[in-house]
Specification:
114 residues; mainly alpha; Four Helix Bundle (Hemerythrin (Met), subunit A); 4 helices; elongated; binds zinc ion
Length: 114
């Protein structure tokens, strides 16, 4: 086990901070606050709204994917598998985890996948 509790606590903190940033970014698009999912009837030009919605979706989608990756990483911390490559099972170097705390692959595996 290469990661000690201090490393994990620090990485978890990084993940939580990034999660907060992503949540706030999503909130600026009105994603997490939309409770009824309805449309504002004051929007007259539907095509305009649709175009803007498409643009927003293009920005929102990667944020949502990032959020899922962060939550996955937090789950792996909880179940003790954090820091292990999901592909080859080897330990991910601490420097890589510090650069990208939500990563689930070691550098060689990540370069094969992307
Ligand atoms: Zn690997």
């Amino acid at each position: 086990m290469a990661l000690d509790n201090v490393d994990i606590a620090r990485l978890k903190q990084l993940l939580l901070e990034e999660r907060q940033e992503v949540m706030e970014a999503l909130e600026t698009f009105g994603v997490s606050r939309s409770t009824d999912g309805g449309y504002d009837p004051n929007f007259a030009d539907i095509s305009q709204v649709t175009a803007e919605k498409g643009e927003a979706d293009a920005l929102i989608q990667p944020l949502k994917e990032t959020l899922v990756e962060i939550d996955d990483a937090l789950n792996r911390i909880a179940d003790g598998t954090y820091g292990l490559c999901m592909k080859c099972g080897k330990e991910i170097p601490l420097e890589r985890l510090e650069a990208v705390p939500r990563t689930k692959y070691c550098t060689p595996c990540a370069s094969l996948i992307r």
